[in-house]
Write a structure and sequence with these properties.
The chain is an alpha+beta fold. The model has no long low-confidence stretch (mean pLDDT 82). The chain contains 19 helices and 17 strands. The chain has a 7-stranded antiparallel sheet. Strands 9-8-7-10 form a 4-stranded antiparallel sheet, with no helix packed on it. A 4-stranded mixed sheet has the order 14-16-17-15, with helices on one face. Strand 7 and strand 8 form a beta hairpin.
């Protein structure tokens, strides 16, 4: 190599340096895990560094190849040598044309000397100014033509390595609110089809694959927003939205992390997680896969992901952990700053009890009555006795961990709770939910589901009582919100039913005198006669109570309902005694 001219040696040395730097980066990427270097690799400057080294190596290798060919051709015939030199010069000039123009016309070394010698006036002379201006225009004109191939090659290489982000449309389901906005549609299926915007996601995995191993790829971090898809996620999407789909969520825990959800907070490796991106503080609650106060350790190659709108997100709490291979693209947490963090909350008081979400009952009743007024049904009045009943039932729900409306574990129904507080009505029903809600999200939650909307707009409800009951389930702090509804609906008995009880009274009054006269008869069974008269008077009194209650269009009491059941038995007993006394 020592016999080669400097024109050959320089590009060769640069190429070797680029090659060594590239090998060094591969070694560091392989050996240094969980270090500051790995954090550096996740920085956006690394893709540029890798691209710079690759392009520098390619260009220097081209220069080296051209210079070497030129050197060997110089030893050939003069004619061939001149042709080759001209071709090589043309190629080289094209490669570095703007730089050559800059050096040749502007003569930067001369400018520096003039500035040092304080001859600035020579620089701005008329002749010099024209020359500089003309040169500048030429460079401006030629620069795009020169830079475009470099840009194209760089883009192709960067895209092949997965360093180029591409926009992905975001549905309006609101599961990542407030980071991504909610849609305007009301129905969940319609929301899933509504696009609220497109955001740049980086392909994952990315980087350079050599001999089956990936180098310079982005390492997923906590806080990254990812697009994930697997069979469970697709099944969940089909159940919710009518068709299979992936999910866009945030990485909360990485392999080796321990995770627990307690009292509305996420505990990561034993410490409460401060999450400015969530919609509300104290708003994370367990689901089927990860229940309240249940600790899990994330296995190797697994991730735990959640939506930022914790009460409106189906995520790992429901469908479980996801594999690294389930991730298709990502927005690194560092790249979210300044773009996706404009709606982040102030988290300075997130761990204080004062930030616990509370339901404003007065405001809730006002919002609910607005909905009922729009639906054309009567407004609700607040009933303190129903609140007491709701409190009692909430305590039993938490005590027995019984969230069934049939009260299968506790046996403590709404009817029993109302009876204990001294309240009764004709129509009643209940709704309860575990968790902490503010007023707006509480009513929004119920009106997001058609069946609950229909329930809250029931025309027969007239009164309401609400209670937030805090307690523990399996030593895990939690809260249940119980709503009790009640109302009065007149029975509106038919005319025929009312008159049938009137006829019973009339018939008994007609026959009673004749049976009373039998008391004076000598040959009569006194015991049977007394029993018969007792039964007749009893049936008459029962019938009168039922008749006047029905005539007033009032509901029968439980005692009066018992009288109705008893009437058939009384009628049969009266017939038996009457036949016996008549000698039949």
């Amino acid at each position: 190599m020592k016999d080669f001219p400097i024109e050959v040696k320089k590009p060769f040395i640069i190429w070797i340096i680029c090659l060594l730097l590239f090998i060094l980066l591969i070694i560091l990427d392989s050996l240094l895990k969980d270090t500051a270097f790995e954090a550096l690799l996740n920085n956006s400057i690394v893709p540029l560094l890798v691209l710079g080294i690759i392009l520098g190596g390619v260009i220097s290798f081209l220069f080296f190849s051209i210079s070497t060919i030129s050197y060997f051709f110089k030893k050939g015939s003069l004619k061939k040598r001149n042709i080759v030199i001209k071709i090589l010069k043309t190629f080289l000039i094209i490669l570095i044309l703007p730089i050559l123009l800059f050096i040749e016309v502007l003569k930067p070394l001369r400018l520096i000397k003039l500035i040092i010698k304080k001859k600035v006036g020579d620089i701005f002379s008329k002749q010099s100014f024209k020359k500089y201006a003309f040169s500048f225009l030429i460079v401006i004109f030629l620069f795009p033509l020169w830079a475009l191939p470099y840009f194209f090659v760089s883009y192709v290489v960067a895209n092949a390595l997965g360093f180029v982000s591409s926009p992905i449309p975001i549905a309006g389901t609101g599961s990542m609110y407030p980071t991504f906005p909610k849609g305007s549609k009301k129905d969940l299926i319609e929301q899933s089809k509504e696009t609220i915007g497109s955001y740049d996601f980086m392909p994952y995995p990315n980087g350079l694959v050599l001999f089956g191993k990936r180098y310079f790829g982005y390492k997923l971090q906590r806080g990254d927003i990812v697009l994930a898809i697997n069979e469970k996620i697709k099944e969940n999407g089909k159940k919710l939205y009518g068709e299979p789909s992936g999910v866009i969520k945030r990485i909360i825990a990485l392999p080796g992390d321990t995770l627990e959800i307690r009292d509305g907070l996420v505990y990561l490796n034993g410490n409460p997680l401060v999450e400015p991106y969530t919609a509300k503080p104290h708003s994370t609650f367990g689901e089927g896969f990860l229940g309240e106060c249940k600790k899990i350790t994330i296995p190797k190659n697994k991730l735990f992901i959640m939506g930022d709108n914790r009460k409106g997100s189906g995520d790992s709490r429901e469908f479980g952990l996801v594999d690294f291979n389930d991730i298709e693209s990502a927005i690194p947490f560092q790249k979210q700053k300044g773009k996706l963090d404009k709606y982040y909350r102030d988290t300075s008081k997130d761990l204080n009890d004062s930030t616990r979400i509370k339901l404003d009952k007065t405001q809730y009743l006002e919002l609910l009555n607005n909905k009922r007024a729009e639906a054309g049904v009567q407004l609700l009045k607040y009933q303190p006795l129903l609140e007491k009943a709701a409190t009692k039932q909430g305590e039993m729900i938490l005590k027995y961990n019984d969230f069934s409306y049939e009260a299968t574990r506790s046996g403590y129904t709404m009817e029993k709770a109302m009876r204990e507080v001294g309240y009764s009505n004709i129509v009643w029903n209940e709704a309860f939910i575990q968790g902490y809600y503010d007023t707006k999200e509480f009513i929004d939650y119920y009106f997001d589901f058609p069946e609950w909307e229909k329930f809250l707009l029931e025309k027969d409800f007239q009164e309401i009582g609400i209670s937030e009951v805090e307690g523990e389930i399996n030593k895990c702090p939690t809260q249940v919100i119980v709503q009790h509804f009640a109302g009065y609906v007149p029975p509106n008995y038919t005319k025929e039913t009312i008159e049938s009880w009137g006829r019973i009274i009339n018939n008994i009054e007609e026959i009673l005198p004749s049976w009373e006269k039998m008391k004076n008869w000598q040959n009569v069974n006194r015991n049977d006669l007394d029993k018969l008269l007792g039964l007749l008077y009893r049936r008459k009194n029962n019938a009168e109570a039922i008749y006047y209650r029905m005539k007033a269009n009032q509901w029968l009491t439980s005692n009066e309902e018992g009288m109705m059941t008893e009437d058939k038995n009384l009628y049969e007993q009266i017939n038996v005694l009457a036949n016996r006394l008549n000698g039949k």
